[in-house]
Design goal:
alpha+beta; Jelly Rolls; four-stranded antiparallel β-sheet; 9 strands; about 15% helix
């Protein structure tokens, strides 16, 4: 058996030089360095924004002390609650009254140990919550909107008697 073999010729490849541009460090595409004033302005703006965010977070979590026989006026913003505290002794009768404008209110009363004791709220702008304290300590009241997204102003009244 005889096969015809074909010959292969190798040709030397020519080298080609490729060129490309590399961005040089230094001036921006506009031909200038970022100014120190621009960098300073950016740094100051960043600090101001962080400060405002921190202040807003602290305002949202601040607790106001309620005094017997007084009204606490407040404003409710979207999807938040406002916290109030008062001190009561075991056996004290406590009545909280919430009058709201622009939203249907909701009251939550928490005991000194953080347990939810009683709630009042719903489809009305005037709510009362009565409770007889079974232990002594600092109680917390949360004022919020019964429905999501409620905003407006309110007055919270505390009446406390033995």
């Amino acid at each position: 058996m005889i096969k015809n073999l074909t010959s292969t010729t190798l040709v030397k490849a020519e080298t080609t030089k490729l060129t490309f541009d590399v961005a040089q460090p230094g001036p921006s595409a506009a031909g200038r360095f970022p100014s120190s004033r621009r960098l300073w302005r950016r740094a100051v703006c960043t600090i101001v924004v962080l400060l405002l965010v921190t202040l807003c977070a602290q305002i949202g979590s601040a607790q106001t002390v309620l005094l017997n026989g007084t009204n606490a006026a407040g404003t409710l913003v979207v999807n938040t609650t406002n916290a109030y505290t008062f001190i009561a002794n075991a056996g004290d009768n406590v009545v909280l009254r919430l009058g709201s404008s622009g939203f249907e209110g909701n009251l939550n009363l928490y005991g000194p140990n953080g347990a939810l004791l009683k709630t009042a709220g719903g489809n009305s702008t005037d709510w009362a919550l009565a409770y007889t304290a079974t232990n002594s300590g600092t109680f917390t009241v949360l004022v919020g909107s019964y429905y999501a997204g409620g905003v407006g102003t309110y007055a919270l009244h505390l009446a406390q008697f033995p």
